[in-house]
Amino acid sequence: xxxxxxxxxxxxxxxxxxxxxxxxxxxxxxxxxxxxxxxxxxxxxxxxxxxxxxxxxxxxxxxxxxxxxxxxxxxxxxxxxxxxxxxxxxxxxxxxxxxxxxxxxxxxxxxxxxxxxxxxxxxxxxxxxxxxxxxxxxxxxxxxxxxxxxxxxxxxxxxxxxxxxxxxxxxxxxxxxxxxxxxxxxxxxxxxxxxxxxxxxxxxxxxxxxxxxxxxxxxx
Length: 220
Fold this sequence. Notes:
Blueprint: E1 2-8, E2 11-17, E3 26-31, H1 37-43, E4 52-54, E5 56-57, E6 60-61, H2 67-73, E7 74-77, H3 88-95, H4 101-110, H5 127-139, E8 145-149, H6 157-172, E9 176-180, H7 184-190, E10 195-198, E11 201-202, H8 205-212
Parallel strand pairs: 3-9, 3-10, 7-8, 8-9
Antiparallel strand pairs: 1-2, 1-4, 5-6, 10-11
Helix pairs in contact: 3-5, 4-5
């Protein structure tokens, strides 16, 4: 994205963001609550539209791309797992209506869920299972990029680490990941060079160093 500004009701949520995401591995964005992390992520698959500036995917302004096609290539998993009524199979087929059970089982295997989960109803799943089912629903479209919006914030530590490990595995297999986190330890564990947002802008080198210094005790 180049010089991206987003204003809502006269308030500037993002202020001149220029940022390039790596084509592979895990890129991490951190910042205090309200700094614009999730908004930036939503710009990447046109859930938000910039007031000015350009967001590009594969060198093309995403404003020129079909939103549905874009979202198949750039999938997003949200902070709170939300499954539609019906079974996990029904949910996966919302994303990929023509997918056969073999492809659906493969998506579940990618997130560490057994094939038997296809017949489970969403309301029966634990928080961690539901989040993995949501991830499988995104992966069934075989995206090139995965947007992860604080996906572990409502999970217990064990479920959170499992989801981290699954994401690392996906990245190693060629899916580029953009991960937004409220957890500084998690951010530094997943990414070597986290991007820091402050009040809708990229932090300066000095601000970034201070923010990432554990001795400062930053509260995300």
